[in-house]
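STRUCTURE REQUEST FORM
Protein name: LysR family transcriptional regulator
Source organism: Caballeronia ptereochthonis
Requested output: structure tokens
Priority: standard
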Amino acid sequence: MNTVQTLLSRLRMKQLQLLIALDEHKSLHKAAAVQAITQSAASKALHELETMFEAELFDRSASGMIPNQYGRRVIEYARLLTTDLTLLCQDITDIKSGRGGRLAIGAIMGAIPAVVVPALEALRENLPNVSVEIVEDTSARMLSQLDDGRLDLVIGRSAVSAQPSKYRYVKLADEPLSVVMGYRHSTRPRGNIAIRDLAHCQWVTYPSKMPLRELLERELDLAGLDMPLNTISTASTFVTVALLNQGKDLVSLLPTDIAELFAQHKMLRILPVDLRSSSQTFGIVTRKGSVLSPMAERFIELLMARAGR
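Status: completed
Returned output:
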């Protein structure tokens, strides 16, 4: 409690900016130059910070000043505070100009067609001047951006984090999966196909340790097959679809909503493969303790209403 009171009364943003510069440049001299202060002033500011936290924040080594476990944690929150203040200033500017504010959303690809897009359409009807940024990536990468304050919320999975308890998670829907192939390289099968029937194919799959990759490995194992060594790994939906359309005997595992979207435009063909693993789920992920903007709260309301929650 004493540390909190000390920080509230003595901590300055200039000190936090110095920490970020030190992390980037590994040199007190260079960090001081970036902050347009003398090296002695930078040294004094760092000493004040270390006194407040009652711990050294950097290890001095031949390669420069390297943040230790305490320093890394303080720098993480320094970046978060800086990002939040930047977004606050941007929001105030947007509101003054009549643009209505900003919303940054991260979403896994399977949630975009049936969940994110309809909710965004409804949001635009209610708040036509809101500025929206959408990031499509893996849950793990987007959680990192959520931690840094670059995203307001993520439609994905908090369980992939090493510390899932630091997030609020509300389940939205299941994510059924389909096996797909390039449209012009395949014909409509007459009956069901087993995973074993695709043993001659090369898989385009998500990177290792990602839920979609782990599910494919489980399906192959249940079929008595090893994961092939010649897989093509990508987290990009566009790259996956482009590869499937260009290469013969390439197959992939995609969320069914995504697969159906591309199948409608005759870019992919969904193969009648019965998967034995249960569908994965996804939901709304936000940072515990964070204060959501009115735009983010309204968007979450629309997501929950669409999910019937």
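Reviewer notes: Residues 2-77 form a domain with the Arc Repressor Mutant, subunit A fold (CATH 1.10.10.10). The longest helix spans residues 69-97.
Form closed.
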